[in-house]
Amino acid sequence: MKGKLMDINKKLAQFLESGREFALATVIEATGSSPARSGFKMIVSNEEFLGTVGGGTLEYKTVEAARETLKRKKNSLIAFDLKNIGMTCGGQAKIFFEYIQGEKRMYIFGGGHICQAFSPIAASLGFKITVLDNRSDVANKEKQPFAHEIVCEEFESGIDKMKFGDNSFALIATNKHAYDGAVIKKLCEQEEKFRYIAMIGSKTKVKTCLEELIDMGIKIETLKKIYSPAGLKIGGDSPAEIAVAIAAEVIAFEHGKDVPNMKTNLVGET
Prior knowledge:
Layout: H1 2-18, E1 21-31, E2 41-44, E3 49-51, H2 56-72, E4 76-81, E5 92-101, E6 104-109, H3 113-124, E7 127-133, E8 149-152, H4 155-160, E9 168-172, H5 177-188, E10 194-199, H6 203-215, H7 220-223, H8 239-254
Parallel strand pairs: 6-7, 6-9, 7-8, 9-10
Antiparallel strand pairs: 1-2, 1-5, 2-3, 4-5
Helix pairs in contact: 3-8, 5-6
């Protein structure tokens, strides 16, 4: 059992670092002739599971309940009567299901004034921040004190070297239209990794950039998911005000709230 616990702890660390969501099922009480034992654990994602709560139908029911926990994103405590689920051994097992979301990562492409105003807010919301810029005068610790990682490299090659987790957010705030398009194109190639992608800019600039990408073969359905211009309609155009508007949009997105944002319409959108 000690070896299995080490395997679970290793997998737990991997899931947390990758940003994946999962449920941790822990037996907190077992009575009668149940095969479960207090302390037995399982890690369950939508794709896989590791560990054991004792085997048999109890294990199947545990995986089923854990995936329901993932859907609801809420913790629960379930008492399984083993006879009622078809196990002849009898007894009872109480299992605690805990919803866990791994590290949230915010990738900011462009280290200028918007990034510098937005980073401290994003950090306070629990994000680990990566800043990528090709300018050494902004891609440094002095200008990016809240960044967990700072990459000074050309945007396309820098993105190619990054490994994005399953809980990734992105803000595109480069200093050139061409860079914006290059970054969006790269991120769209890995869109399944990103929960949220946003880009700053005027409505005219944004519409031009996105429609150029349509001409380059990026699917319109993919581009419609991009929040651009980034931020809620709360007014203000200073870096600090824009940063607050973007942070408010991120919060609303995480909580599933439909709020008035700046997102522009593309061809075929109403």
